[in-house]
Specification:
CATH topology: Jelly Rolls
Radius of gyration: 16 Å
Helix content: under 10%
Strand content: over 45%
Number of domains: 1
Distance between the termini: 21 Å
CATH class: Mainly Beta
Largest sheet: 7 strands, mixed
CATH superfamily: Ureidoglycolate hydrolase
Number of helices: 1
């Protein structure tokens, strides 16, 4: 049986809006700070946590290759997750709408260089998927008690390709 194919699309705020926020510089800063030597691009993500608190972690992910096989998706019912690359490379983001407690048809996006994302609370998504080294990211997500990870292993794999 042939595996289902998904083409990667470029990411922009409008196409990603139902899944999360695109974190990138605005055309002009909200305000200048530090004696007008630093532009502040303010409040770029809708962070949302049930109980717990925001925490900052560093993730060091192994780069993946295209075509990429998607066999599992996950979601975090108690908090959003922001991924901010600590490099200038694009990375792959896979998301899906909820269809009765399981992921619907996945969509694959490629971020622009120097762009982060914030995945909304309870949104199905693939694992962190850098396509080249380094795979270093600052991650802002919920720290606290309770089950905040739900994994769903797909009945049929998807192949993600350019």
């Amino acid at each position: 049986m042939a595996k289902r194919q998904i083409s990667i699309q470029p990411m922009d705020a409008a196409s990603f809006a139902s899944f999360g926020d695109v974190l990138t510089l605005k055309s002009k800063p909200d305000k200048m700070i530090n004696q007008d030597m630093c532009g502040r691009h303010h409040d770029l993500a809708k962070l949302d946590f049930t109980d717990g608190q925001a925490g900052i972690s560093l993730f060091d992910a192994v780069p993946r290759q295209l075509p990429y096989t998607l066999d599992m998706m996950e979601r975090h019912p108690l908090g959003s997750q922001a991924f901010i690359p600590l490099h200038e490379h694009s990375f792959l983001v896979i998301v899906a709408s909820d269809m009765g407690g399981k992921p619907g048809e996945p969509l694959a996006f490629l971020t622009a260089p120097r762009t982060g994302i914030n995945i909304y609370k309870n949104t199905w998504h693939g694992v962190l998927t850098p396509l080249q080294a380094p795979g270093m990211f600052a991650v802002i997500d919920r720290i606290g008690y309770g089950k905040n990870l739900e994994e769903y292993w797909l009945d049929e794999e998807y192949i993600i390709q350019n």
